[in-house]
Design brief:
Layout lengths: L8 E6 L2 H14 L4 E9 L9 E4 L2 E6 L14 H17 L5 E5 L1 H6 L5 H10 L5 E6 L4 H4 L4 E5 L5 H4 L8
Parallel strand pairs: 1-6, 1-7, 2-4, 2-5, 5-6
Antiparallel strand pairs: 3-4
Length: about 170
């Protein structure tokens, strides 16, 4: 099983990626590390940088302060929603040194939509302390980030047996 080393950048992509990364983050918190899960495109009432959900000691879960999830097309995002993503991003950039592991979910889409500048995100990843590990949960691996990654993990769904071997009828 994957175990993060200090300062590592891992990128996780594919179906069910959060189900794979969340237990690793919880384990790290259980081992005494300070962990932040940052969902840039997920909203929550009474959330945002000032109101994390604390699942266990050392594990803080941050979402934007919007009332809805934002993982739809950028054209559907309002100005206040874009501002909420940028506020959370700016906040976590400043707080990065306080954590041992930061899980960033949705950074790829925020970059793709122009809500967060790719150059700034790369600068933050490159400039982080050597003791801060970062795990990116993305839909597709951004090429510029892939070059920096220590671990690339693509989770693919397995085809069902009937998709691999379609039933054929044999005449008797």
């Amino acid at each position: 099983m994957f175990q993060s080393r200090a300062g590592e950048l891992s990128i996780w992509t594919g179906c069910g990626v959060q189900a794979q990364v969340l237990p690793l983050a919880l384990r790290a918190a259980g081992e005494g590390q300070r962990v932040a899960l940052v969902q840039l495109l997920k909203g929550g009432i009474s959330q945002g940088p000032d109101h994390p959900v604390r699942l266990v000691a050392g594990f803080e879960w941050y979402r934007t302060s919007t009332a809805r999830n934002l993982d739809s097309a950028v054209e559907q995002l309002g100005e206040s929603e874009i501002q909420a993503v940028q506020t959370l991003w700016s906040w976590i950039c400043m707080q990065l040194p306080q954590y041992d592991l930061v899980v960033l979910d949705g950074l790829d889409l925020a970059i793709c939509w122009g809500v967060i500048a790719e150059a700034q995100a790369l600068q933050v990843i490159r400039g982080r302390s050597a003791s801060v590990s970062v795990a990116l949960c993305v839909e597709q691996i951004p090429p510029a980030f892939a070059e920096l990654a220590d671990i690339l993990s693509e989770i693919r769904s397995r085809p069902r047996p009937e998709e691999l071997f379609p039933a054929t009828r044999v005449a008797c």
